[in-house]
């Protein structure tokens, strides 16, 4: 039994190493959230077993939990580098598949079709507004900037205010609000499913997204000209890496010891 107990320990240590390695590899990934492994002990026994004689038979992985603590602020100066200063998520929708994603990576840009997107054809979602910035609907839609305004003046630039208003400026000096950024919130964000590129999708564990306007409640303000860095603490991860390595070595040593004992028993002479 000791072989399998230590084997479980080896597998758990390997999982821990994999998670820590993933965290370290993404230390410079914008909007990345670190994860940690959680384990539980396994005990063998029945209702008739003397509680003083019950022994453990190893450990098992219970979950890999995401940590959504806010990362450091990196000033960039680019108007479409955005950050949620709070607990909310940007919402994007794939222009190819129509899938909805949630992200803390606010590195957006304007493409040739006037869409504010993340470089992977995922378009930023906003609440529709009138030209003055008053919200006219509660269903998020694509953030689209017209190349010319109603007077025929050409597009000159884009700014995003703290309240989430996306404002387009035109050559004739006029400004038009093209939408207000829709910020998503979840009752259990740790239940979101990672799909890569600092994107998540909702699950039955996370619950469905609740949308709100920036600056209201838990949704957080919008910071323009800044990005949220990864919340990975390299020093903490390196300590965890050393610990996981020692755990792996200790379990390997336990298997080696059990093997030596088994060999000794086999070699006994009567």
Automatic annotation (TrEMBL):
Cellular compartment(s): Bacterial flagellum basal body
Annotated Flagellar basal-body/hook protein C-terminal domain residues: 224-268
Keywords: Bacterial flagellum, Cell projection, Cilium, Flagellum
The keyword Thylakoid belongs to this UniProt entry's keyword annotation: no
Pfam families registered for this protein in UniProt: Flg_bb_rod, Flg_bbr_C, LlgE_F_G_D1
Domain Flagellar hook protein FlgE/F/G-like D1: 83-168
Recorded GO CC terms: bacterial-type flagellum basal body; bacterial-type flagellum hook; cytosol
InterPro entries: Flag_bb_rod_N (IPR001444), Flagellar_FlgE/F/G (IPR020013), Flg_bb/hook_C_dom (IPR010930), FlgE/F/G-like (IPR037925), LlgE_F_G-like_D1 (IPR053967)
Keyword Cell inner membrane recorded: no
Domain Flagellar basal body rod protein N-terminal residues, every copy: 3-33
Domain of life: Bacteria
GO annotation, biological process: bacterial-type flagellum-dependent swarming motility
Role, per record: A flexible structure which links the flagellar filament to the drive apparatus in the basal body.
Family: Belongs to the flagella basal body rod proteins family.
Protein name (record): Flagellar hook protein FlgE
Species assigned in the record: Novosphingobium olei
Organism lineage: Bacteria, Pseudomonadati, Pseudomonadota, Alphaproteobacteria, Sphingomonadales
């Amino acid at each position: 039994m000791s072989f399998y107990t230590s084997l479980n320990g080896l597998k758990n240590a390997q999982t821990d190493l994999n998670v820590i390695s993933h965290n370290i590899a993404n230390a410079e990934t914008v909007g990345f959230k670190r994860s940690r492994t959680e384990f539980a002990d396994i005990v063998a026994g029945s209702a008739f077993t003397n509680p003083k004689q019950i022994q453990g038979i190893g450990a098992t992985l219970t979950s890999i939990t995401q940590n959504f603590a806010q990362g450091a602020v990196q000033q960039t100066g680019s108007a479409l580098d955005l950050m949620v200063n709070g607990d909310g998520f940007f919402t994007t929708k794939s222009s190819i598949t129509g899938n909805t994603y949630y992200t803390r990576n606010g590195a957006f840009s304007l493409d040739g079709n006037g869409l504010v997107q993340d470089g992977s054809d995922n378009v930023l979602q906003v609440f529709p507004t009138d030209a003055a910035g008053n919200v006219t609907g509660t269903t998020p839609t694509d953030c689209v900037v017209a190349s010319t305004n109603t007077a025929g003046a050409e597009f000159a630039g884009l700014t995003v205010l703290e309240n989430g208003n996306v404002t387009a400026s035109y050559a004739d000096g006029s400004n038009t609000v093209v939408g207000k950024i829709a910020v998503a919130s979840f009752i259990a964000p740790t239940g979101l499913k990672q799909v890569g590129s600092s994107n998540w999708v909702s699950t039955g564990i996370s619950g469905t997204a609740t949308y709100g306007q920036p600056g209201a409640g838990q949704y957080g303000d919008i910071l323009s000209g800044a990005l949220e860095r990864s919340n990975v603490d390299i020093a903490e991860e390196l300590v965890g890496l050393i610990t996981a390595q020692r755990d792996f070595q200790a379990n390997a040593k336990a298997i080696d010891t059990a093997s030596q004992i088994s060999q000794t028993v086999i070699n006994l002479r009567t």
